[in-house]
Amino acid sequence: SQKFTVMFSLQNMKMVSVPTKAFGNFFEGDCYIVLNVGAAQSIDVHYWIGNSSSQDEQGAAAIYVTQLDEYLGGSPVQYREVQGYESPQFRSYFKSGIIYKTGGVSSGFTHVDTNSYNILRLMHVKGKKHVTAKEVEVSWNSFNNGDIFLLDTGKLIVQWNGPQSNRTEKLKAVLLAQDIRDRERGGRAQIGVVEGSNERESPELMKIMTTVLGEKPNKLKDAIPDEKHDQMQTNILAQFQENIVHCSLCLFYWIQDCFIVDHKGSSVMVWKGKRASKVERQEAMNRALGYIKAKNYPPSTGVEVMSEGGESAMFKHLFKSWTEKGQTKGLGSTHTVGKIAKVDQVKFDVMELHAHPELAAQQRMVDDASGDVTVWRIENLELVEVDPKTLGQFYGGDCYLVLYTYLRSNQKQYILYMWQGRHATQDEIAACAYQAVTVDSKYNGAPVQVRVVMGKEPRHFLAIFKGKFIIFEGGTGRAGAANPESSTRLFQVRGTNEMNTKATEVPARASSLNSNDVFLLKTDRVCYLWYGKGCSGDERVMAKTTSDVLFRQDKQVVMEGQEPANFWVALGGKSSYASDKRPRLFECSNQTGRFRMTEVYDFAQSDLDEDDVMLLDTWEELFLWIGKHANKSETTDAWKSAQEYLRSHPAGRDPDTPIISIKQGNEPPTFTGWFDAWDPLKWKVSLIADLSNSPNRAW
């Protein structure tokens, strides 16, 4: 099953699809709707309110969300998001950060053309975990000593690091700058870094800054600590908690089978029972907003609206006893309602995509992937065309350029994908970018350039290889190259059709298995097709197709739980692996002055914060991952919270569930197996150390 996020803006009271390159950019004068479909086909619909948006736009956004909910059978969970107070779940959709842009349709400003280099803006970057960047006045008056600022001149983005900013903030800002370069400028802009505490080391970049901003004043403003915003929220909510003494939540029954749940004033949830009428369901969001106003809660108070059978994880966690339909114990099985299954079952009609660009944006598909494909590999920093017989086979030690050509209105259109292997050298990555410019020039700048990182391939990229996209973890595809051969190789296959399938090589050990997927295990004599209990028939068919491409040996089907002894021998012995219960990751931090646990949604290895302690709940075990910069207090509090987490869990967890403490850089496979495409070398080289040593560096 595929996960995807779709974003819409409201223009003249109509929903307009936002192109992928503009994801995470929010105009303060507008309202937006963001629809997210999770791995288990759960649907979340958020509507975002800009600080300068009109009441009419806000009302229109709420109406569209209600209509979406009705169309999808009442299955989505609805969320109201306010600028500057977005929920962690909402922020998780935009890994590189959120950018607040001035203007918007309602305020009379026009949206900036992100393909243009005629840009001059200054962005104030804040946040350690979830980054936000707000456009501010292009002046030294906007600067302070504790934060990071991006001066965007179109072809050059200068990152100025405040003397009091920390390592994590610098890294997050670099990732945001890279995201702007890659998505908005097609990878053609340069990035330079200036350390505010050592500006003399960056004379050329400082000259550019002073040319744009004028002479720098002798003293800049002091920073507003990141935690001040959170502390202000805590103080505001504290006054409301006095009215809810000795109670974790309050229920308010207003109409037949509909309830408002007040979670200590921090959020308001509306639960709609199956017997609720259509009018009652449509009024749910308005009832919640009316309740917030009546209680004098802040306008930024979060709102969730959900239907019976489609409750959010946070809602369930508020109840000491919660069972699902068909559940015998715990939260293992989930009952789905409505039209969720229809979301991913859209047939691609290329004429329909061309006639309705908004559909193309929603499906992330410019066409049906039937165009022409040419693939080059970077060899000795030059382009070498890949043998068509091995099309779709990519090696982690290489970089590739993929040129896709298709027709629109009888005119040729081009997409140039730049695929970067995890183990490719910096020279190869640089050569890939350089050769992309060469190819782009050959076609007079017509190709749309897309940077693709190994393991993060977009939907259209997968589709052009017709279900035969395969990633080899290491080595190279170069002719005559001596790749390290192993008698045993394991591939994880995900996908239900030719448009979304890929096979990824993973460590050949039992802990790499996952009950939700199909795996191919190659040995000297046989290729096993291992079918996890949670995989579908379509996934099995696609795995069989992949196995025919990879291996010529005899194929042997193995069902989970019926493995022969030789299967486990090939994997080095039997051990635990990811089961059908979805893991949950929490950040444990006291950076705001008090200890907090915050859930991280749709997590990846990059979400493990070196400054904090992270808690990973795999149901059979709890892992406490300790970042190398985490303080002793966080470690102690995290251990206590892990024990309380088990005791208070609504599923009635065993309080004796093992709690395992591990340190950064020493993760066992039973931990890394829960993360897609785990990179064991991620923390070997510090990016910030490189930047500190070369503050003038531009790339």
From TrEMBL:
Keywords: Actin capping, Actin-binding, Calcium, Cytoplasm, Cytoskeleton, Repeat. It comes from the Eukaryota. The keyword Kinase does not apply. It is found in: Cytoplasm, Cytoskeleton. One of its GO terms (molecular function) is phosphatidylinositol-4,5-bisphosphate binding. This is Villin-like. PANTHER family: VILLIN, VILLIN-LIKE PROTEIN. It comes from Oryzias sinensis (Chinese medaka). Residues 13-91, 131-199, 257-316, 382-462, 501-568, 597-671 form the Gelsolin-like domain. One of its GO terms (biological process) is actin polymerization or depolymerization. GO terms for cellular component: actin cytoskeleton; cytoplasm. The keyword Repeat applies. Its main location: cytoplasm. Belongs to the villin/gelsolin family.
